[in-house]
Structure prediction request, 453 residues.
Amino acid sequence: MQSSFTNLTFCIRTFGCQMNKHDSERIAGMFEGLGALQVDTIEEADIVAFMTCCVREAADTRLYGQVASLKNVPLRTDSPLRKRIVAVGGCIGQRDGEKLTKELDHLDVVFGTHNLGSLPHLVMAAIEEGGHHVEVLDAASSFPTELPTSREHDWAAWLPITIGCNNFCSYCIVPYVRGREKSRPLEDIVAEAERYVAAGVKEITLLGQNVNSYGRDLYGAPRFAQVLDALDGTGIERLRFATSHPKDLTDEVIGKFATLRSLMPALHLPVQSGSDAVLAAMNRRYTRAHYLELVRKLRDVVPDIALSTDIIVGFPGETAKDFENTYRLVDEVGYHQVFTFIYSKREGTPAASMEDTTPRETIQERFDRLVDLVQARAFEANQADVGAIVEVLVEGASKRDAGLLAGKSPKNQTVHAPVPVGKTASELAGTIVPVRINEAKTWYLAGEVVNDR
Ligand code: SAH
Ligand code: SF4
Ligand code: F3S
Prediction:
């Protein structure tokens, strides 16, 4: 009887946001620490964990289908187990709990967003005893900082500074599946960052559903600007953060883009809609004018800051005029990137009971028009860098062409350049190289590594 993780293989399938991606790294860290080996494919894996997302409906249906189809994938012939262990965690695990095992009877383990640390013992119980093992908690008792991580890249790290969300935007399920906002003590954040810097990490991305309200629960007032100061002080090369709620983005934080060496000139600032009526119905608690004022202030501080955003098209009651306001806002701001979503009704949220009469085709037309504009404006925004030399943090070879390096500019644009003669993409991965840009496309820049330095 198998009673340890040695000789077992595991694979994690991750959906949704960076919170889930980071949680997956923690799970990998735990399993590896116990002696299991991470593999890429489900065929090779004795244990499969799904880290799920339910922010929109499409993700939901896909998960049920994927878990169901696992039934037909045979276990590797030399597995110490008699049956593959299938675990579902993340936001669908948190929301559906026990119900998942009723619909998917070959599911062994269900866990939630507040108890990642329980996964190894739930899996072991399933191996030793068989049957379903479900554990979902209502809230985290503490910030899960003590768990180890196994990061995807040696040179980049995600660092959660808050978990959960208190904003209750009327369309959004996140506060229900991630719980109330909890901040992590500043000294823990700094200690983790210092460990990363000492280990050679080049880029840290601070994570939270709304990083701007960091510290409100712990210190009585937001302290996000102080987090940025402290992180810059660790000597980290590149610092980024996501996500920022416009209602809480302060002048103090905006000013940090000018004063902090490590803070990269790129900001994701979700607007969701350009119509005040829709913003109010969404419970976003800012106006179009306030948002545009933030954009103006950011550009006063860093004229070429790269802005990105999220937009929901087809929120209940969105009129043609509301949509035009969104369209005009996107045109006015000139984003480098926009993530566009069609509104998806989430049971249990206030918007689920709002009347929604706009025909599906009208919403699709609005969506398509917006996507065209987004692409045209992104293409234009990238032209500003043609001729410039940008510092690129190399990620490795391009997926499309092994002869090309792929990496990220300070503005978070993808950059491609031929691998310099005498070098390989893998030895350059994790280093920062200067690239002269000679072409700008909608979603990437192309150029050549400058080696005269
Ligand atoms: N906390 C972050 C991200 C939350 S989820 C923030 O506030 O920006 C990421 C994005 O998914 C949101 O910004 C929103 O644009 C989109 N989203 C959330 N709920 C949605 C829904 N019910 N339908 C469509 N898009 C949704
Ligand atoms: Fe959802 Fe709004 Fe919280 Fe973002 S801020 S996670 S959109 S409730
Ligand atoms: Fe999805 Fe959960 Fe993130 S619902 S967007 S994985 S917080």
About this structure: Residues 9-135 form a domain with the Rossmann fold fold (CATH 3.40.50.12160). The chain has three domains: 9-135, 150-383, 389-449. The CA atoms of residues 152 and 294 lie 34 Å apart. The pocket of iron/sulfur cluster (ligand 2) is lined by residues 165, 167-169, 172, 174-175, 209-210, 245 (CB under 6 Å).
